[in-house]
Design a protein that fits this description.
By secondary structure, this protein is an alpha+beta fold. It contains four helices and four strands. A hairpin with a 4-residue loop joins strand 1 and strand 2. The protein is rod-shaped and about 155 Å long.
C-alpha cells in the first residue's frame, strides 16, 4: 500500500515551497560545480608549477651543457674550417712527381737545363739551358711536341742557326 500524504498547505504556499526546493537544488548544484572546478583548477595550478620547475631545471641543464661544450663546438668548427681549406688546396694541387719524372726522361743526355719556370695562370713554361749539339736540341723539341700533356713547344730558329755545338737555347711550351 502506498503511503498517503496529507498536505494541508494552500496551493500558493505549496507552489512557493516547490520553488524554494528547486532554488535550493540549483544552489546546491552550482556549489558542487564550483567545488569541482576549484579542485580541478588547483590540480591544474599544481601541475603547472611542477611542469614549470621541470622545464626550468631542463633549461638550466641545457644551458650548462652548452656552456661546457661551447669550447668543444668552437674547436670542431675550427677543425671543419681547416679541413675545408685543405680540401680546396688539394683540389687545386696536382701531383708534380709523375709529370716531372716523365718530363725529365724526355730530355736527351746532351742537354743541360739552367732555368725552368712555369706561369700557372697561363700554363706557359719556359726552359733555358745549353745543348751540347744542335741535334740534341732538335730531339728535345720533338720530344716536347710529342708529349701528351704539352700543347705546343717552340724553339726560336735563330738559336738553331748560329751554332752547332754548345747551343744556348730557350724553349717556350704550353701545358694542356
Amino acid at each position: 500500500m502506498l503511503p498517503t500524504r496529507l498536505n494541508f498547505l494552500s496551493p500558493e504556499k505549496r507552489k512557493h515551497l516547490k520553488q524554494l526546493a528547486n532554488l535550493q537544488f540549483a544552489k546546491s548544484t552550482v556549489e558542487i560545480c564550483l567545488i569541482v572546478f576549484s579542485i580541478i583548477g588547483t590540480a591544474c595550478l599544481g601541475g603547472y608549477w611542477v611542469l614549470e620547475s621541470h622545464v626550468d631545471s631542463l633549461l638550466s641543464r641545457v644551458e650548462s651543457t652548452a656552456r661546457r661544450n661551447r669550447e668543444k663546438i668552437m674547436l670542431i668548427e675550427q677543425i671543419n674550417a681547416s679541413v675545408k681549406n685543405i680540401k680546396s688546396f688539394q683540389n687545386a694541387y696536382k701531383p708534380w712527381q709523375p709529370f716531372l719524372a716523365e718530363f725529365f726522361s724526355m730530355i736527351p743526355d746532351g742537354i743541360k737545363i739552367q732555368n725552368l719556370s712555369l706561369n700557372r695562370a697561363t700554363k706557359k713554361c719556359t726552359m733555358s739551358g745549353v745543348a751540347a749539339l744542335r741535334d740534341d736540341l732538335l730531339t728535345l723539341q720533338n720530344s716536347l711536341r710529342s708529349a701528351p700533356y704539352i700543347a705546343e713547344a717552340t724553339v726560336p730558329i735563330d738559336q738553331l742557326i748560329l751554332q752547332k755545338t754548345d747551343v744556348p737555347f730557350t724553349i717556350t711550351f704550353t701545358l694542356k
